[in-house]
Amino acid sequence: MPENVNTVGARIRYWRMRRGGMSQGVLAGLAGVSQSYISQLESGRKSIDRRSTLVAIASALQVTVADLLGQGTEAGDPARERAGARVPQIWSALIEIEDGERQPVAGSAEELAARIARADQLRASANYPAMAPMLPGLLHAAAAVGGTTLAQAAYLTSTCLRNLGYRHLALNAARIAVTAAEDVEDPAWIGAARFAYTQSLPIESAALAARAADRSLAEVQTDAADERVRQMLGQLHLAAALTCAVSGRVDNARDHLTEAAREAASLGDPVDGAGFNGCGFGPTNVGLWEMSIAAEQGEHGRVIELSRTVRPQTLVAAIRHQSYWLDLGRAFSASGRRDAEALAAFVQAERAAPAPFALNPLAREAVVAITHRTRRRAVPDDLRILAGRLGINL
Fold it and tell me: Tell me, what's the pLDDT at 392?
């Protein structure tokens, strides 16, 4: 693909032309959107704000969502390139573990626990590029011990890989986490590993992800007396709600969200802002997922309304802070008339978690759309600086 094809809109046009010069009207008809919407996407005046729309356009073009997002092909981001250099080693470690190979135990249990705690701290701060170099050795060391130790290391690996754009490998890591947790029959870690598995499935598999979450809920439900398990049940309901929304099952999404809210109301927010496995399940996290679900359904006014009652600072995880500001910024941007507020929200999202923001294709698209709309006016310094950090040439 040519180097200048570096936005979703440009990639849509590239693949449309590769499909025998398919017209915008034909693509729009196949994807269930308007021709003017395709035109605005390709010109950069609009950004895609719904996962289901991405799936529909990718399907119409006979490509994957990852092809449209450029995941795995984008160059020039130093953080991702440094992390990407370790991915072959991580992949190799995952293959060895899946094949049953184990290296001798190296170091004490205390040293391994400290390494896992350090990786978990990096996850909490969303510093995935710094996590990646730790993972090959951590996986081998955890595999030698097995059980919940391996489940936790594999969960951390899955989270890191997914946020760096290597979703297929994140799925492998999640499967290892599930197997390790099931080997020792730990229901809380089974729930956590199942959540990682659901999160790692490709966007195109939203319906499958929803079914996987339903099966996981049934599997873990019998141990709901354990507060850790209840937190993971809540997280699984949230994952199911979002995947149902993406696959068009609005009523099911609402039911899962209601169940999550009920569980959260009885548990409250975690006192330490993290809870079991740092999932942060409670009313605040439910509110954040509700914002994401409203965004997926195109209810941008609802996103803004919810933002007035959600306080992301209650939680430790930086990625949850970013989720709040990113959803709010995209809601402001979608109107086309609140770009100053959108920009302020995107600046906050980047401050919350710089590396994931730089690697988020949809964040980049939203900033591109704002820059196109401001070209007839003086470009604000904040927008110029943010665009520069994302590699957008104004």
Answer: 64
pLDDT score at 335: 72
How distant, in Å, are the alpha carbons of 16, 41, 356 from that of 73? 19, 20, 16
| CA geometry: angle 243, 246, 251, nearest 5 deg | 80
Q: What is the pTM of this model?
A: 0.84
Length of the chain: 394
Q: Which two tokens stand for residue 154?
A: 């594999």
- Please state, in angstroms and as integers, the Cα–Cα distance from residue 45 to each residue in 375, 380, 394, following that order: 11, 17, 14
Q: What is the pLDDT of residues 179-220, one digit of tens each?
A: 999 999 999 999 999 999 998 988 777 777 777 777 777 777
Nearest to residue 318, comparing CAs of 345, 294, 351?
351
Taking Cα atoms as reference points, which of 374, 293, 283, 295 lies closest to residue 328? 295
Place of tokens 């799925």: 171
Query: How far apart (Å, rounded) are the C-alpha atoms in residues 185 and 182?
Result: 5
- Residues sharing a CB contact under 8 Å with residue 50, sequence separation 6 or more, in sequence order: 295, 296, 297, 298
Task: State residue 363's pLDDT score.
Answer: 79
**How far apart, in whole angstroms, are the C-alpha atoms of residue 311 and residue 303?**
13
Domain range enclosing 357: 317-394
What pLDDT is attached to residue 104?
A: 78
The rounded Cα 288 to chain-centroid distance in angstroms is 13
Phi, psi (degrees; rounded to nearest 5) at 338: -130, 45
The rounded distance, in Å, linking the Cα atoms of 250 and 338 is 28
Q: Provide the number of structural domains found in the chain.
A: 2
Which residues does the chain have with pLDDT short of 50?
A: 73, 75
Question: Residue 105: inside a domain, yes or no?
Answer: no
User: Which residue among 75, 105, 132 closes a domain?
Assistant: 75
Q: What SS3 state is found at 314? A: helix
The pLDDT score that the predictor gives to residue 343 is 85
Residue 364 is assigned to a structural domain of this protein: yes
CA dist., res. 179 & res. 156, Å (int): 15
Q: How far apart are CA 10 and CA 48, in angstroms?
A: 12
For residue 123 the two structure tokens come to 């996850």
